[in-house]
Design goal:
The structure holds three protein chains of three kinds. Chain A is an alpha/beta fold. In chain A, 40% of the residues lie in helices and 13% in strands. The chains are: A alpha/beta, B mainly alpha, C alpha+beta.
Chain lengths: 491, 106, 481
Amino acid sequence: MIDIKKLTLVQSSKLLCNGDITSIELCKLYLDRVNEVEDRIKAFVYFNEEKILDQAKKSDERRNTGKTLSDYDGIPIAVKDLIAVKGDPCTCGSKILSGVDSIYDATVVEKLRNKGFVLFGRNNMDEFAMGSTCENSSYYPTKNPWNLNCVPGGSSGGSAAAVAASEIGASLGSDTGGSVRQPAAFCGVVGLKPTYGRISRYGLVAYASSLDQIGPLTKDVADSALLLDIISGKDEKDSTSLNSDNPNFLDTLINSGRDLKGLKVGMPKEYYIKDVLDKNVQKSINYTVSVLENAGAEIVDVALPHIKYAIASYYVIATAEASANLARFDGVRYGHRSKDSDNLLDMYLNTRGEGFGDEVKRRILLGTFVLSSGYYDAYYLKAQKVRTLIKNDFDKAFEQCDVILSPTSPCPPFELGAVTDPVQMYLADIYTISVNLAGICAISVPVDITESMNLPLGVQFIGPAFGEDKILKTAKVLEDNRKIKSFIPQI
Amino acid sequence: MENNSKKDDIAIDVASVAKLARLKIDNSEIKQLQEDMTKIVNYIDQFSELDLDDVEPTIHAAQFNNVWREDKSVKGNFTEEILKNAPALVDDELIKVPQMMSGDTE
Amino acid sequence: MTDYDVVIGLEVHVQIKTDSKMFCSCPNRYGEEPNTLTCPVCTGQPGALPVPNKKAIEKTVIAGMMCGCDIPNFSKFDRKSYFYPDMAKNYQISQYDFPFCLGGKIHVDGKGFSGKEIKSKDIGITRIHLEEDASKSTHFARSSGIDYNKGGVPLMEIVSEPDMSTADEAYAYLSLVKQIMQYGEIGNCDMEKGQMRCDVNISLKPKGRTELGTKIELKNMNGFRAIHRAINYEIGRQADILDEGGSLVQETRGWNDDKGRSYLMRVKESEQDYRYFPEPDLMPVLFTDEELNNFRSDLPVLPEEIRQRFVNDYGITDFDAQVLTAEKDIAMYFDKAASNTKTPKLLANWIISELLREISKSELSINEIKISPKDLANLVELINNNTISGKIAKTVFADMFATGKAPEVIVKEKGLVQVTDESVIENFVKEAIENNPSQVQQYKEGKTAVLQFFVGQVMKLSRGKANPQAVIKYLKAMLDN
């Protein structure tokens, strides 16, 4: 009997290859689960049962005729609602794109199709990836499967919740300031942000071009490595994508040792200011340290002296880039167009006024402001310089250690509606945001559950650019040695 | 964060920034937005604490140069779908918008 | 009227002749069905990304070098934000503070379009940068329609220093820019196809004053001639206002060529805030010194160099060289033809007075006409070796132009070989004299102009084929006796 709540991609692959299950059966398991819980969780904004089963059928036919595309042919996977899938609506959680079908596949989608994955549907998100709770979705807020009164995190909240609730085995999200890692922590799943440029952004609706990366949300670390192998690689359609050797993260992970002897784990003192950290989070960090040390790792002190400016730097750079990236949403070529605007200016104003939610408007305004005449030097230029300082901080820190340990989020998942002050919301990104500024990699892995509320807690391992091997290994050792074997919500 | 505006708040004219960004802001929204923006801008002003004169800005997370492609044309097949997604067309072949002033970019 | 200094600067946009667009692989072609040369990138679809065209970058560097510009090692792209339906992303990928080319100059002199001599001087070039073109909008009664085929075509912007002071100088500058673009195989610069556009910035100040006057921008001129007219009109219009004691405001004005007047498009209240910032989707460009030297050593030949060679090798005049090198295709045609004739000067005349006229009438380009360079050279040789007269050659030429047949073939088919046999001519002359006694009488009475009449008669008798010089020789000999 297959326990879908524990089923990983690695296991699904074995089952399919052994003939223990067909793709149709596998997809039906997930569809049943969706029927069971989706009403309460609302992690999806779109899926089409017919399309799913049609893909599954074709996969089974390939398998029956010995023409499988890969060992993963037939495994279903979901994507966040801002990754282009040809023929499917791509709305980015926004009214302004209602009714817009993508006219092409994102490169990552092409890669998944080439391996035979079944595209299962689209997950809810904060509008245009701007938010940390999924409350900014124009559809509905997604609920945290661990506690339906709590947020799943964001902006890839739908992806994280869907995986946590086992509505799907894995989902591709996007991470600009923590949007894969933070919801992973809130939902008790694994979330990876690769080195900038590792994964092609062609087909990822841009929020902040120099910070965005697609990242997998999975049940365990091995699945994360598996997806990284499949979707990374230089893409001629994305000028910012990097050349790197043929990835084999999964193999490396499986074959790397079970201990962390010789690994230096840095703990930046700026992250661990006494008595400021939430008690549960502090406890989870302490626990993590003990597990890592037992496995042979050495904890060292490192410094990230400019880290406190990271949030300000991020919000200037991200919103500036976003203000230009979102300019194309104007009702001219696709999407919502305001009715009865008899002149062009009104059409723009009304379409964008009606189509964008409040947080998106705030960020577009901020971004427009910091780029506007007279303010560029004071804000945007300075933010880019601060970015250099932060990058240098990490470079220096990685001379002293191999990976950096930090909480993913300063607090456990909170209730819907609890945080309304935008600045307060921004401050919660403190641990994740600097990773995007520096363009390096990081992974969030679940480590514990809060006593009082039974909510998951995750910790983050940050690695240098191209250091995915190191953080995957460290995360796996933690995963193998933590007392909670599987993180499965009750729902 | 304090709720009262500090004495040395940075003046941000939300209405004119909104026009630049082609965002319609209702009068009812302006006051709250003005407050939100002032708070945010005050927060990001902490850069003024740092001496950044000798620091180079980072534009790209990864530093490399000369990414380009060979000049070879490929005729795509997107016309039908592009026109299908358009809210309005002229003669089924041009994308229709309200009258543009010739040469006007404002 | 007070004397004014006129200060003119030109912003020229040149579409680069590449196979594909600037940031996507859509074909770069003119005249196709609307919206058929489109893709996610050039229509600003969600998630699409730009990838620069290497050839467009190279051509920009070459253009800069041909104009004497400095090519910095480092350059980058920037986003220029403004909302307009013909710009799919509502920002244009352009260059702001690190363009591909800086500085440079174009030398003007010689006879201007108006016929007056142009002062010999250098017109400075401030910068040349690379960007993407906007799409095409067609205006209807209450709406406009956009065709994205043109959107994303590689566009070079050449900004001149405000060094020009007359319409003639501007015209000359533009002609030279066009020549360089053609010679460098960079762009065809056909203004009717939108491959070259020019905005004029013009201001007047009282003579001798250093402070510049109010700058007015002129747009919408669809040809060099229109630009020339527009500049002269605008100088007059502004001078009139200033003469009356009025003042000018910064404006953008359009040009109505039919009415011969400029009209207000919009008043410039403030500078447009384009919110330039470095393009995060594109990596910067870094040329090594070696790479730049390679460009330089392989540079296409400049028009002046060809002009000089024509003068030196073929012995034609400076003026003829100017006319023949005005367009690269014509220069190449002449070059090919001239190497097949002993009299390049005569050939030059044939091209300048006959061929160019026919080309202009037929609206074909020199590459489309039926007369090959070799055949034109052969026509000239037929005149040189007295096979046909210059006059007959003109009819042969007309036939060549229409049919593409070789001159020898036409001469043979129509039996146009010149009669040079002296005895035959002598007979015709005798006959003409015998048949026209009264004209002989007039001649003997001193009316030497009557000689022409006899020439005409001999020509009639010989059906135009008698060699005119021989005819005159014999006529004179006989009549004077």
